[in-house]
Write a structure and sequence with these properties.
MnmC-like methyltransferase domain-containing protein, 229 residues, tRNA (5-methylaminomethyl-2-thiouridylate)(34)-methyltransferase activity, binds S-adenosylmethionine, two-stranded antiparallel ribbon, 8-stranded mixed sheet, oxidoreductase activity, acting on the CH-NH group of donors, tRNA_MNMC2, Rossmann fold, globular, alpha/beta
Length: 229
Amino acid sequence: MDEFSPLQTEDGSLTLIHPRFNEAYSSRHGAWMQANALYLNLTQTHLHPSPRVLEIGFGLGVNFRATLASAVERRVWLEYLSYELFPVSRDVLEAIRVPLPGEAEAVWRGLLATWPDVPTVTPYLFQGDWGRLEIRFEDVTRGDFPNDWATAIYLDPFSPQVNPEPWSLQVLHKLYQAALPGAFLATYSVAGTVRRRLTQAGFAVQRVAGVGKRQWLRAVRSAPGVLPG
Ligand SMILES: C[S@@+](CC[C@H](N)C(=O)[O-])C[C@H]1O[C@@H](n2cnc3c(N)ncnc32)[C@H](O)[C@@H]1O
């Protein structure tokens, strides 16, 4: 934990500054807010009857927990596949508390109990009557994603300035292939290069109003014959 600097975000939830990237894991305007408003809701995962989420950057598991809480509350089966090249320890995960309802908190406690002491054996699998989580402790640039699989993509590496590899056209192409037609991708970065590469990869890209930040990005893999609105 010592290597990270804690940062209290505006909604009261805690995040950390990564020493190597010198950036926060989540928005300073609210880590829990961003997980819910940007990743869960903007991709419409909060409404999906059988969500399958592909995430780039498991980090502190905040997006996972927001998605888990929604799925558990709605009693829908969740499948969550995440990539994480620099996994944190159990102590770090445990230190980052978010306001989870009881049942989802119990699932999260189960994850903490089974989190590997040295998180290098990949993949880490965790499942229960709520669904299934798979974390591949790998470099996403080498990742081999399932095709036509994801109902939602959470594109959440550190920023393209300090962590450019996961934002490469090659990765975005693979994300496009991994998405089901009609699936939404959400990300906090509205950088021109990100928008252009997502478009080149095949997504229809839209800037939307952000919370605490002027804009966020939503992209869709269009269903055949459907023009994105
Ligand atoms: C902004 S944080 C993700 C926050 C996370 N989604 C959450 O809910 O807590 C970015 C994450 O991407 C990971 N990352 C950076 N480069 C990566 C790569 N090439 N492959 C896989 N993960 C990477 C970092 O280690 C970090 O945990």
